[in-house]
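Memo to structure team: turn this sequence into C-alpha cells by end of day. - J.P.
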Amino acid sequence: MADKLFGTDGVRGKANIFPMTADFALKLGKALGTMFSGTVAIAKDTRVSCDMLESSLAAGLTSMGCDVMLLGVMPTPAAAMVTPGLGVAMTVMISASHNPYHDNGIKLIKADGHKFSDDMTAQLESLVQKDDFKLDPDKIGKIEYNFKAITPYLSKIAAIKRNSFPLSGLKIVIDCANGAFSKIAPQVLKDFGADVIAIGAAPDGYNINKGCGSTCTELMCETVVKENADIGIALDGDGDRIIICDDKGARLDGDQIIAFLGQYLKQDGKLQGNAVVATIWSNMGLEKFCHSQGIDFYRTAVGERYVTEKMREIGSNFGGEESGHMVLSDFAPTGDGLIAGLTVCLGLLKTRKKMSKIFPVFEKCPCKIDNLRFASRERVAEVMADPSVLDAVEKAKAEIAGHGSVIVRKSGTEPLIKVRVEAENAEMVQNVSRKINDVIAGFM
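Reply from structure team:
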C-alpha cells in the first residue's frame, strides 16, 4: 500500500501535532471536497480535540463547495449504519478509537456505510500532499446540524427484541470508556430489561479510555465481582470494539467472543454462508474450534475493513478481530460493540448457564506477541526494510513451517513493529520469538 499517513483504519496521531492538526484537517477537508460533491456528514467521539478537527474539516469542505451535515457525538458503528440513509456522499468519523484523549484520528466512511479502500485513501493522500486546491468564490457550502440522525440505528437495535424484555434477569456491567456510547449503551440495555450497572459513562473530553474501556478492563472485572453481575461488557471510545468478562471477572479476548458468537449464530440458524471471517492475528485454536463446529473459517490481513470485504465476498454475515472488533453485518456494516454485546447476552441466556461454565470456549495455542516501539513511523519503515530483519523473519518462518506461524508487521496507527509467533509447542514459540526480537531490538 502506497499510503504514508493512512493506516488500516484511517489516519491517527496526537492532537495538535501533525497530522492531527487543524491545518491538516483543513487540507483534508479540501481534498475530500475535490473528490466528492454534495453533502458530507461529520461525526465525532467525546475527546476534547474533536471540536477543533470538526471545525477545520467543515471549513475545508465548505470552501470547496460541499455542504456539511454535523451529526454530533455518535459511535462509529452508528455513523456507518445511518450513512446510507442520510443522502450524503460520505461520512467522516473523528475518533482515535481506544487511544487516550490526547490522540485523535479520522476515519472515512463511503456512502454505502463501508470504509474507504486502499486506492481511495491513496488518492486522498495524494491530493492533500499536492495541496493545490482551486477555490471558487461562487461555490461555498453550508453547514447544517442533524442530531437526530442516530434514530434509525436505535430503531434497528430495538427490532432485535423477540419479546418486550429479552434480557430480563441478567445483571450487566457496561463500561462505556467515557466515549461515544456513554448515553446510549446503558439505556439500550435497560430497555432490553437488564439490570444495568454503568461505569465509564461520564465523558468530560479528557477521560475517554482513561482507566476504563476495552483496553483497560480491570475496573469492569472488579465491578462484576463486587456487584455479583452475570457479565461485563467493555466498549472503546468510539464503540466499534468489545471485550467481555465472565461472572467471576475473568477477561475474555476477541477470539473467544468470535467463537461463542459463531457457534450461537450457527445454532440459531443465522450464520449466513456457514462461515466466520477473522484475521491472521487470530489464534489457531479459534480456527480448530470453528472447524469442529462445522463452520468454514477464513483469514484476512489485519484490519476490520479487510474482514468486511471478505465477508461480502463469501456471503458471510459475521467476522471479527482478536482485538475486539465484531462485525454482525445484518445490523451494521462495521464493528459494533453494543450489537455484539447484546448478541452475546442473548446467546448466554439461551444456554441457561453461567458464563464461567461456558468460557473459554476453546483452548488457545501458545502464542507470544511483542510490540516494539520506535521513535517514528519512518523509522519503523526503515527497520522493516532492513535486509537483516527480512532475513531473520524468513528464517523464523522456515523454522516454524508446518507447526505454526510468524507475523511481523508495522502498526497501522502507531510507530510499532508487532511480532507474533504462534505454534502448538510453547518452547518453539519462545525460541523463535526471541531470535526475531533480538535482531529488531538492535535497531532501537
